[in-house]
Structure formats: C-alpha cells, structure tokens
Amino acid sequence: MTRVGGGRACAGDPQDDGKCTCDAGYGGRACKDRKSGLPVWAVALVSLVGVAAGVMLLGIVYLVYRERRGEPVFSSELINPILQIQERELKAGL
Predict the structure, then answer these.
(1) Which residues pair with 4 in a beta bridge?
(2) pLDDT digit string (tens) for 65-75?
(3) Where are the beta strands (DSSP E) in the chain?
(4) Which of 4, 52, 59, 79 is the most exposed place for a label (fewest CB within 10 A)?
C-alpha cells in the first residue's frame, strides 16, 4: 500500500496528480470497499418486483381457496334482492 497526496493510503495504482486508481471490483478512498455487481436502483427494482409477485401469488391462492369453499370472490350470477323476495313468496304460497 502506497501513500498518495495528503498522506492517504492507496491500495490501487497511485497517480501523479495525487489520486488513486482502484483495482477492478474495488472503490472508495483507500480502495478497500468491494463494489457490488448491481447498482442500487437495480436492487430496488428487483425487490419491488419480488414484492409485487408475492402479493399476486397470495391473491391467486386466496381466489382458489374461496372457489374450493364454494364462495367465489367473483360470481357470474347477478343477485337481485327483489327477485329473491318474490321467489321466497312464491315458494311459501303467498
């Protein structure tokens, strides 16, 4: 490790202007910080996509669960309360 301008340590290649050029995969003032392969925005995007996929999977599991119980979340039958009352009255003979 050599010293560059201002007495800073340089683990990479010291330059004539006092700067330090780090080896591939390292960064920071003393070239000790390992650089990640992905930028921060990519990590955030992958995390958001993962959370969205998890929420969608839970929604599908919930829909299947309700279907198997016979209580579907979405029904193709339109329920009209007035017609239900009239059907009950007809069955009761009123």
Answers:
(1) 8
(2) 999 998 888 87
(3) 2-4, 8-10, 13-14, 20-21, 26-27, 33-34
(4) 79
